[in-house]
């Protein structure tokens, strides 16, 4: 065995992982060049090798939980990852000209995939499992939680930045009598969201958040009483966090409330995981507490900050079970390499949330501080 292979075996052993071992979390290696590929290309090489069938684990989520809980990702960094970070610093991956790329490469890959994988409302963000018994209940609980945190009332004008397939727009209009404008950068989402919200006081637009027009506003230019953004700022890029916050600030009434729902990183970063960036979410990255704080400073008052990141592990595992069960139908449109890519995406992310490497925050913001304060909702 080469010295480099011995070093990798020793590193994995720190996480309780045995090469070709019997445990579900152990890695099974099927190609002799796996070590070389991972050493040369880091996380990108590891993910691509999995897609090519070079390795596997009985429970991929458990493998990643052990790897990340032991911080092996930090111990195994190499110069290629540093070069990727440097590229992120020099380039603005979230600039306006690239805004629609994630829509085309991820959200537009097929509504059928997401229909099978998600809940009945097609909510593609962390569910709230506090009192829920299944995915449908957990996603409805999350939508209700957001409405309560926004203190929604009938007739309020609401903007949903990154509205997806219109799940929140529809829920807020049906259950709270709100007038909602939803914007997304996905053509497929616009089509399905408009169909889902037909007959309701909802308008769905294909818009980047920086391109809102006066005609998009309710009542001939009136600002919004409430703004919500669920799982959108992860696509913005750290160079644009301030621009994003300023956009929300300029569209919100002085006494309004802005709720930001986002995955968060424990450390400030200027680049995304290389495999995720290439195959799943191009140009995306996770904000940190520091980065969000810096972007909101001087604009918003932070009224409430709620972390339920452990709920994302359960959400991702539910999505994977749905995806796995539907594969017989889905494989007519997707090949086996896509299956391994999507499985890797869902289960590696589940392991990451389980290891507490990623968080899920709901942050309630106001312009001037709400008179009398804000009562948290859990």
Structure, explained:
By secondary structure, this protein is α/β, with parallel strands linked by helices. The chain folds into two domains: 75 residues, no CATH class; 271 residues, Rossmann fold (3-Layer(aba) Sandwich), CATH 3.40.50. It is built from 15 helices and nine strands. The strands form two sheets. Strands 5-4-3-6-7-9-8 form a seven-stranded mixed beta sheet. Strand 6, helix 11 and strand 7 form a beta-alpha-beta unit. Helix 2 packs across helix 15, helix 11 crosses helix 13 and helix 14 runs antiparallel to helix 15. The longest helix has 21 residues.
Distinctive features:
single chain, 378 residues, alpha/beta, Rossmann fold, 7-stranded mixed β-sheet, two-stranded antiparallel ribbon, 15 helices, 45% helix, 16% strand, globular
């Amino acid at each position: 065995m080469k010295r480099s292979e011995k070093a990798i075996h020793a590193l994995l052993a720190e996480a309780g992982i045995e090469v070709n071992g019997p445990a579900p979390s152990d890695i099974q290696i099927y190609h002799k060049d796996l070590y070389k590929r991972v050493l040369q290309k880091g996380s990108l090489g590891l993910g691509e090798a999995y897609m090519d069938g070079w390795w596997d684990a009985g429970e991929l989520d458990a493998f990643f939980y052990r790897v990340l809980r032991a911080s092996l990702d930090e111990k195994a960094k190499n110069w290629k990852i540093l070069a990727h970070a440097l590229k992120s610093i020099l380039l603005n991956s979230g600039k306006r000209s690239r805004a629609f790329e994630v829509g085309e490469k991820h959200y537009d890959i097929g509504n059928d995939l997401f229909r099978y994988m998600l809940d009945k409302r097609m909510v593609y963000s962390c569910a709230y499992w506090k009192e829920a018994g299944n995915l449908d209940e957990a996603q409805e609980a999350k939508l209700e939680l957001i409405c309560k945190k926004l203190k929604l009332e009938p007739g309020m004008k609401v903007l949903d930045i990154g509205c997806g397939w219109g799940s929140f727009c529809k829920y807020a209009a049906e259950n709270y009598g709100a007038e909602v404008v939803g914007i997304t950068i996905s053509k497929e989402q616009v089509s399905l969201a408009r169909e889902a919200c037909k007959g309701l006081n909802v308008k769905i637009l294909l818009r980047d958040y920086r391109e809102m027009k006066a005609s998009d506003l309710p009542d001939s230019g009136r600002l919004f009483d409430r703004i919500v953004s669920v799982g959108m700022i992860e696509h913005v890029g750290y160079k644009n966090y301030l621009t994003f916050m300023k956009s929300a600030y300029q569209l919100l009434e002085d006494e309004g409330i802005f709720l930001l729902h986002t995955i968060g990183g424990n450390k400030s970063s200027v680049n995304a995981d290389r495999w995720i960036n290439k195959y799943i979410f191009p140009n995306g990255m996770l904000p940190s507490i520091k980065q969000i704080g810096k972007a909101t400073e001087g604009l918003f008052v932070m009224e409430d900050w709620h972390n339920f990141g452990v709920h994302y592990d359960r959400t991702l595992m539910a999505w994977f079970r749905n995806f796995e069960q539907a594969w017989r139908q889905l494989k007519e449109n997707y090949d086996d390499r896509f299956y391994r890519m999507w499985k890797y995406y869902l289960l590696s992310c589940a392991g990451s949330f389980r290891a507490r490497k990623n968080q899920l925050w709901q942050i309630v913001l106001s312009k001037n501080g709400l008179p009398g304060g804000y009562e948290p909702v859990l």
